[in-house]
């Protein structure tokens, strides 16, 4: 046998599966299945089919998912670094497919790190609507934020909060909520042997307590008529059918939306609750049979690991007021309407988390589109209770003697008196051809486009308040790597295309300086070759460079670089 299963686990599964047990156990002699999912934010399925570097077999329950042949390493290809696909276990693609996200939806991924399901949701939204993605573990949000950025997501907010605090800020706001719940992980034993080792420390009882609280909070986050998808990667009925039955028993406005028994999906097993937990079954008998409409993904019935998925539909009744003063619905904000938020108070936070105590909301006169100026920040900080960093921004931008030209990146005036948003706006007009949506939000010297707006985020621990556009430094706007990742070549006034076939793309991804003639820089009308260049791999954006006199200075960030041999 490939995996040595805990004896207690094996005995329990034998009592539950009966005649299926032998087939179930044989699945552990097979290798786990690997998969990738095409990122349709950056490339269409037709385009990917033309350039796919591997032989791929479709995954039945995900139209953008493919099985990867054994031995193939899709992470060692430039397309991975260009964000054209996400490497994801095949069964893990099912919950988002069953959430049925549509462009324009407001969606919350409540337990999101490292971000596979978040990027899947984002691809379905196609840049429209709102995506809030959260993880309660601060360290895990680093990978979550990086994946949001690598895959070119423009309309996401990344939080590091408890579900309860999010519910206070977003009461009955979301059309769709995904709960990829913390669980005992039994379904991952074949894929990750460390899960076997840690299984006894992740007791079912502890997981049930967390799951119960998360589900109850999700009901407060959901808009009338909305949908919750609850998923686990465990076989334990306590965490699956029993948990859903308990939720339905308390929340009478919800019903299970049946998942078809197709594509290898098997029905839920309410009889296991009756067998293992007769008292729980008696308490929930009126709703327990609904859990037969949930789905179990078994490793011996399909090509994937063990999962459980339930689709919970809210029966819309009394309308709930979802808007709050000062909050603008997505799509209503025009580019140029600006909110400024005070600097991060905690020093040394390299991931740019925004401490709850540091947020100070400034109201701009939207009718007159009055822009907030740097010199006003100190007074606003005092109104918010006083920040240790009050006035830091205005000191930072002083002219140190070097004159700045008016063209290119906001040069031409004493930077202490310049508006950061004006600098940002000037860069966007001169370097890109793109219509921005949402609200421009400044956190210190960092500029974001937010699909939610700062009012909703006040008091929350925010990792990314929106699409990170860049930083104001010494009166200049420096575009961010996430800005480049989310662009396409047609939106940049300068771009250059590198081939994945001849090693040039890998050299760029490793951070090397490249030399090539001006003719290779693709220019829009009335644009000079000198300046920021969007660097593409086979036509798909990968990062920035700066071209001057035959040399492309590499702007690919050190922490993202290709490190494989």
**Which percent range fits the helix content?**
25-40%
First CA to last CA: what distance? 33 Å
What is the mean pLDDT?
84
How much beta, percentage-wise? 15-25%
Shape: globular
Radius of gyration: 25 Å
Would you count the extended β strands for me?
25
Can you give a write-up of this model?
This protein has 565 residues and is an alpha+beta fold. The protein contains 20 helices and 25 strands. The strands form four sheets. Strands 5, 6, 7, 8, 9, 10, 11, 12, 13 and 17 form a ten-stranded mixed β-sheet that branches. A six-stranded mixed β-sheet has the order 21-25-24-23-20-22. The protein is globular and about 75 Å long. The relative contact order is 0.10. Mean pLDDT is 84; it is low at 318-417.
Concise structural overview:
The chain is α+β, with helices and mostly antiparallel strands and 565 residues long. The model is unreliable at 318-417 (pLDDT under 50).
Architecture blueprint of SSEs:
Elements: H1 7-17, H2 21-26, E1 34-38, H3 45-51, E2 57-59, E3 62-68, H4 78-81, E4 85-87, H5 94-99, E5 106-109, H6 116-125, E6 130-134, H7 140-150, E7 156-159, H8 163-169, E8 174-180, H9 193-198, H10 204-221, E9 222-232, H11 241-250, E10 254-256, E11 266-267, H12 270-276, H13 278-283, H14 285-288, E12 295-297, E13 307-314, E14 338-341, H15 377-383, H16 392-396, H17 420-431, E15 439-443, E16 446-450, H18 454-457, E17 462-464, E18 467-473, E19 476-479, H19 481-485, E20 494-498, H20 504-509, E21 514-515, E22 522-523, E23 531-537, E24 540-548, E25 551-554
Parallel strand pairs: 5-6, 5-8, 6-7, 8-9, 14-15, 20-23
Antiparallel strand pairs: 1-3, 1-4, 2-3, 7-17, 9-13, 10-13, 11-12, 12-13, 15-16, 16-18, 18-19, 20-22, 21-25, 23-24, 24-25
Helix pairs in contact: 8-10
